[in-house]
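User: Quick sanity check before I run a bigger batch. Here is a single chain. Can you write out its predicted 3D structure?
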Amino acid sequence: MVYIITISGKKYMVDVGFGGNGATAPVLLAEGNIQERLGKGEMRVIHSNVPQQTDAEQMMWIYQIRPAPDSEWELTYCFTETELLPQDYEMMNFWTSQSRRSIFTCSILMVMDEGRLVGTVTMRDAEAKKRAGNEAVETRTCRSEGERLQVFKEGFGIRLPGIPFTEEEERGIRGTVTELKG
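Assistant: Done. Predicted structure follows.
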């Protein structure tokens, strides 16, 4: 979900649910503005259209990233400046949380920023990955829910040290599509 905010007369994109490739800071909506991302990475927005559009005159903002200044830009997502109403967000959130086609109902996804443009810790299903910039420095594949809960505690700080998950919390994922069967 992208918000467009105005500060001192300038518009910025704020990506409130940023994942591994998302914006790590507000991005100025201006052509030619390139901002620092993780490590040597960069991010920008361009005002253009995408090949899938049937009306080439409709312009939108395209958020792009690249892992290093000498790399090609990658299209990550696009958005318009159309104002949305609360019921629009309600429907988007409902679909994201309920549809079987949504990645959020069939995967466990977590991202934690390890400090200003230093790195991330990510969890996707059974794999936890720690990155410094764009380089994976540590990868761990969980074979059981117990191991995954341990990563939640150690890698994401979901629990305070010495406070275990309750039995009810540990059972919460059982029988779901995302349960690790090991």
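The radius of gyration is 19 Å.

User: Great, the batch can go ahead then.
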